């Protein structure tokens, strides 16, 4: 039997904002649960806040799935060749290999949750 793991309870205020590589102009995230740390084996869970004009460059993940769940603001999401407007209550599932980018095209911060997990064969 696998040994029990401890649950982790934290406050978001304990976590610093950071700007990851490829993110520009105030595209900040708080990594709340990191894969391999903080009690998770595979899940990366973060909240992101992009200032107006902030963006993440076009990129893709070969072995990861992602979900973006938008909480406030509005922006333009690129998914392959498509561009779609996202705003509060929009969410998207991004499978591995799909090129994607995100720009805050609104007047206020674009705030969203990001859940990332590796593809299980």
Automatic annotation (TrEMBL):
Keywords: Metal-binding. This is Cupin domain-containing protein. PANTHER family: CUPIN TYPE-2 DOMAIN-CONTAINING PROTEIN, OXALATE-BINDING PROTEIN. Residues 49-115 form the Cupin type-2 domain. The keyword Metal-binding applies. Pfam families: Cupin_2 (PF07883). It comes from the Bacteria.
């Amino acid at each position: 039997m696998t040994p029990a793991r401890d649950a982790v309870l934290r406050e978001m205020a304990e976590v610093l904002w950071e700007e990851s590589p490829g993110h520009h102009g105030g595209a900040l995230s708080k990594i709340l649960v990191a894969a391999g740390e903080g009690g998770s084996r595979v899940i990366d869970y973060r909240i992101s806040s992009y200032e107006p004009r902030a963006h993440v460059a076009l990129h893709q993940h070969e072995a990861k799935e992602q979900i973006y769940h938008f909480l406030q603001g509005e922006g333009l999401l690129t998914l392959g060749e498509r561009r779609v407007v996202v705003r509060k209550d929009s969410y998207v599932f991004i499978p591995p290999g799909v090129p994607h980018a995100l720009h805050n095209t609104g007047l206020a911060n674009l705030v969203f949750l990001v859940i990332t997990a590796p593809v299980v064969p």
